[in-house]
Write a structure and sequence with these properties.
heterodimer, A: alpha/beta, Peroxisomal Thiolase, Chain A, domain 1, nine-stranded mixed beta sheet, 13 helices, 34% helix, B: five-stranded mixed barrel, three-stranded antiparallel beta sheet, binds zinc ion
Chain lengths: 382, 158
């Protein structure tokens, strides 16, 4: 059973003091239902979650308590990707014709607060100030720069690109973004060497939702359904260099992203050369650079050349993070992965306005990554 | 003199004149992990035996923690407290140190100046008093420091 995405919806990302996280999720769901041309009563199963903003199934208090199975997902940054995989699986299995995937969140300012015991880590690891995702990203890019000759210039270039894309996106966290240029990024304070403040995304708020449908019924609702060619989630492998690793093994262990990417291409019967537009997890700008190679789009170290040639810019060969990515949108953990899918659908439907990728892109790719080493990839086609 | 106790039991050998980190080695497949805990991350076997890890290694990657981590879980070291008991955060070095061909461990570094840290430099383990607990005893923690006279590349296992 093939699966299509028939409805996409967002609540704008950023700081939204007037709304709870759950209410932002509700706005996203209503927008996705309206986009699909269907009613909440048409949805037969739902999956969703947030990290800091409550239970997704409480959305039925607002949307209507229709009695459907509504399963709460708690997979950190991959919450949205996991909800998408589960919703697609429900349709493939014949359990439902129409399914919902939703994510939303609302976080405090500053770095995410982490309880090591929630992650199966000893208390001392947190006491000593080692349980920070920012440290992981800094040490991963530091090693990567050393091995593959990536420059600080590239780190700043990627951040400036995403802020520039975000400024063209009415749903992005725009406040102050126009001012963030290449120079601003390099002038911002060092947070975790070699990464500076504006190379990192910030915790934020927002909601994102998708309505999925079996492909053969999709056109009953939506004139321009987007086919979900694959949806893959992978968790960490022993010894891999992933978030929250008190130890790791020198080499030979692929990251969750590398495996998820390979499996997603296999499932879709497509390769990296077929992708016209991509969303790659940019928790910080170095992550986007490393994920270009981990997802098979270029060789390790080739990113310098790609960036120098502008290949990941809006008019380039493979535009990346066309909506501004996590850097310009901020990261509401539960919503972030589905935002990526919403953006790719928007691009494939040719509805991205000022940030529309030229030449009618046909195939898109999303990649989400987060603690404790989870990766999710989806491939979409029109 | 106040007692010195490890910040966590079984983390390193203590008391010991030349302490070592304690890893776990899977009895079934030989996989080495750190810190030691029951259950092998590779094969799932339940039984894991303690294995002392080498005290010296090379710096595999590093960063400088530039902002104060959130509390909980972070507890600042005694060295971050002024005479009046106020806290003054100082950035600290964090790194991955390759101790053997099959294991790299995460640790505090004694050095927090980016100019003086370099991937590949030789490092050695130290155990140091981190902070006092409620009983007034020192909680001992571990860190790696650049080895005296190290100029760049240390031992290689390749
Ligand atoms: Zn084992």
């Amino acid at each position: 059973m093939d699966v299509a995405i028939i409805g996409i919806g967002l609540h704008p990302f950023g700081r939204n003091p007037q709304r709870s996280g759950l209410e932002q999720g509700e706005v996203a769901v209503r927008a996705a239902l309206a986009d699909a041309g269907c009613q909440w009563q048409d949805v037969q199963i739902a999956f969703g979650g947030s990290t800091d903003a409550g239970n997704a199934d409480a959305l039925t208090n607002h949307l209507g308590q229709t009695g459907i199975p509504f399963i709460n997902v708690a997979n950190g940054c991959a919450t949205g990707g996991s909800a998408l995989l589960a919703a697609a699986s429900a349709i493939r299995s014949g359990q439902a014709d129409v399914a919902l995937a939703v994510g939303f969140d609302k976080h405090d300012h500053g770095a995410f607060k982490v309880d090591p015991q929630d992650w199966g880590l000893p208390q001392w690891y947190g006491e000593l100030g080692l349980c920070l995702t920012t440290q992981f990203f800094a040490m991963k890019i530091q090693r990567y720069m050393h091995e593959f000759g990536i420059s600080e210039h590239s780190l700043a270039q990627v951040a400036a690109k995403n802020f520039s894309n975000g400024w063209l996106n009415p749903n992005a966290w725009r406040r102050g973004m126009r001012a963030l240029t290449y120079g601003d990024v390099l002038d911002s304070p060092m947070v975790s060497y070699p990464l500076r403040k504006y190379m990192f995304c910030s915790p934020a708020e927002g909601g994102a939702a998708l309505v999925l449908c079996r492909s053969d019924k999709a056109r009953q609702f939506q004139r321009r359904p987007v086919q979900l060619k694959s949806a893959v989630i992978q968790s960490k492998r022993a010894g891999a260099f992933d978030v929250f690793s008190p130890y790791l093994v020198v080499d030979s262990v692929p990251s969750a992203s590398q495996v998820a990417s390979r499996l997603a291409f296999e499932e879709a019967g497509l390769g990296p050369e077929d992708i016209d537009v991509a969303q790659l997890q940019d928790t910080e700008s170095g992550a986007e650079i490393m994920h270009m190679a981990e997802n098979g789009f270029c060789d390790h170290g080739e990113q310098e050349k790609w960036l120098a040639e502008g290949r990941t810019e809006l008019g380039g060969r493979l535009p990346v993070n066309t909506d501004g990515g996590c850097l310009a949108n901020g990261e509401p953990i539960g919503a972030s992965g589905l935002r990526q899918v919403v953006e790719i659908c928007t691009q494939l439907r040719g509805e991205a306005g000022e940030r529309q990728v030229p030449n009618q892109p046909k195939v898109g790719y999303t990649h989400v990554y987060g603690a404790p080493g989870l990766a999710g990839v989806s491939i979409l086609q029109v | 003199m106040a007692d010195q106790v490890p910040i966590a039991e079984g983390l390193f050998t203590w008391p010991d004149e030349s302490p070592a980190l304690i890893g776990g080695q899977c009895s079934a497949c030989g996989w080495v992990s750190f810190p030691m805990k029951p259950g092998c991350a590779r094969c799932g076997a339940e039984h894991v035996e303690a294995r002392q890890l080498p005290r010296e290694g090379i710096l595999w990657s590093w960063t400088i923690q530039g902002f104060r981590p959130k509390t909980p879980p972070y507890t600042p070291p005694e060295s971050a407290l002024t005479d009046h008991g106020e806290e003054k955060f100082e950035p600290f070095g964090v790194g991955y140190i390759q101790l053997a061909k099959d294991i790299i461990v995460e640790a505090h570094l004694t050095e927090s100046d980016p100019e003086r840290l370099q991937i590949g430099m030789a490092m050695e383990l130290i155990v140091f008093p981190y902070r006092r607990n409620e009983q007034g005893n020192w909680l001992m923690s571990y860190a790696f420091q650049p080895q005296a006279g190290s100029q760049g590349e240390g031992a290689q296992w390749m």
